[in-house]
């Protein structure tokens, strides 16, 4: 069956050291995917799962709506093909929505937004908001690729036409678990292997730097 319907399958990894129950995953996904057909889940080692869809349009819809969270943990999706060797699949790169805040109106041009987005390894497209384009308190959304093996970027420093430096904040949507000690999304702070920082007592104040 898997070989015959392989076009309707995604390979997924849950970024967590916790054990995940299939019924729990299925229940949560049913509440957020809103797909037309049925789907099934096949567990693999190390929190890897195969997600099979009855309809190909549902498979495409799930990818377009990513990233997804299950119990506050990231679900990373990759294409699945017959004879694929799971140990050779790289899950380090994931797609995520990021908001660009505090952009001056002088930079609200397509070529400028694309240039800002190039701080990420891969940039697909962006969605401008009417509020941002009118100079109100809005933001630009971009769908970008991040490397889960590297710390999240809190923002980027830019220079305007007058030579003045300013800061564009990045807020990541559906952030899920994040370590505020090392900046990785692969584990929460209390599971980090790095030694605590001297200022870690005020780390909660920094949470708004990453997620809305």
Task: Please provide a written account of the structure.
The chain has 212 residues and is of the alpha+beta class. It has two domains: 6-88, Alpha-Beta Plaits (2-Layer Sandwich); 93-209. The chain contains four helices and ten strands, in the order E-H-E-E-H-E-E-E-H-E-H-E-E-E. The protein has helices at residues 22-33, 56-64, 110-117, 130-133, and strands spanning 9-14, 39-44, 48-53, 68-70, 73-79, 93-101, 122-127, 139-147, 155-159, 165-172. Strands 2-3-1-5-4 form a five-stranded antiparallel beta sheet. The protein is globular and about 55 Å long. The model is unreliable at 1-6 and 202-208 (pLDDT under 50).
